[in-house]
Write a structure and sequence with these properties.
By secondary structure, the chain is mainly beta. The protein has one domain: Jelly Rolls, CATH 2.60.120.10. Helices cover 6% and strands 45% of the residues. A seven-stranded antiparallel sheet has the order 2-23-20-25-18-15-14, with no helix packed on it. The longest helix has 13 residues. Pfam families: Pirin, Pirin_C.
Length: 326
């Protein structure tokens, strides 16, 4: 997504600096709690952004952006390019169609994921499609989209997709108050499907009833955060409401997320961790590179239809025309 401002440069000097030095059997301390600010994106769409915004955290290596999107049927993300990153799209409600200039297309439904590697270049569209027979009377599609940086040696790799359907995701229930979808990584001894993305990432979707707690181990030195989708949780005795992101230091090997006994409703959180990349981040809209020269080259390649963008010349998606026809 993030289809606007192709010529906007994102500075790298405000990259999150976190405390290192892991300790066994110790919960990680909190680096920062950031609200996910609502803003416009695409065409008529609204997203809550807590990574990648000027008022939040610009990047948290290897993570470049986190959007919690809610998009009505008359909005969406028509044809737009990417280079140099991977995107992980996780559907919560409704359906999203996708289509790109390679001829690939498909639909993601509730609980489905798509791991898209942009590599040297892709142009695609992502458009909501509410299926009344399945989705009922919901007013918008909802999900998370996470942008993950690619190592410099893979910036010019061939684009690819890896889809993960809801029925393929392992589920673990440590007790009667907690349910965890193990999208990527490991939780309570249950492993996910492997090799979904080039950059190692853990992604867990946790539903916690009142009185429940998730005690989740984290890989040593992985950067990690917790995003609260709904409800209110407590992390290290700090109350965190919905649509806030808790960024963690690397001074421990686990995170504890609990819901108070007297909470009125359950909570739902995403626990996400990734292996840091020791490389510069220079971003120009949907292009992510390691130097200003390389990101300028990406923009020039897109405009000229070269070096990975040959098929962009004259290409238009079918699904992107839904907005044009209104």
């Amino acid at each position: 997504m993030n289809t606007k401002r192709l010529n906007q440069a994102v500075k790298t000097d405000d990259t999150a600096q976190i405390e290192f030095g892991s300790t066994k059997d110790t919960p990680r301390s909190i680096f920062k709690v950031v609200p996910a600010r609502e803003q416009s994106e695409g065409v008529g769409a609204r997203v809550r952004r807590s990574i990648g915004g000027s008022s939040t955290i610009s990047n948290f290596t290897p993570f470049l952006m986190l959007d919690h999107f809610k998009v009505s049927p008359d909005a969406g993300f028509p044809d737009h390019p990417h280079r140099g990153q991977e995107t992980i799209t996780y559907m919560i409600k409704g359906h999203v169609d996708h289509e790109d200039f390679t001829g690939s297309s498909g639909t993601l439904g509730p609980g489905d994921l798509q791991f898209m590697t942009a590599g040297k270049g892709i142009v695609h569209a992502e458009m909501p499609r509410i299926d009344k027979a399945v989705d009922g009377n919901i007013k918008h599609v909802e999900g998370l989209q996470l942008w993950v940086d690619l190592p410099q040696k893979l910036k010019m790799c061939k684009p690819r997709y890896r889809d993960l359907r809801a029925v393929e995701i392992p589920i673990v229930k440590p007790d009667d108050k907690v349910t965890i979808k193990v999208i990527s990584g490991e939780s309570y001894g249950v492993d996910s499907i492997k090799n979904l993305a080039y950059t190692p990432v853990w992604f867990l979707d946790c539903t916690i009833a009142p009185g429940g707690m998730v005690d989740q181990t984290l890989p040593e030195k992985f950067n990690a955060f917790v995003y609260v989708l709904e409800g209110e949780v407590t992390v290290l005795n700090r109350k965190v409401k919905a649509h806030h992101t808790v960024f963690l230091n690397t001074d421990g090997d686990r995170v504890n997320v609990c819901v108070k006994d007297n909470a009125g409703t359950q909570a739902r959180v995403a626990i996400i961790a990734g292996e840091p990349l020791t490389q510069p981040i220079v971003q120009r809209g949907p292009f992510v590179e390691t130097s200003a020269k390389r990101v300028t080259k990406a923009f020039d390649d897109y405009v000229s239809g070269t070096n990975g963008f040959e098929r962009a010349v004259g290409w238009e998606s079918r699904i992107g025309k839904r907005i044009k026809s209104r």
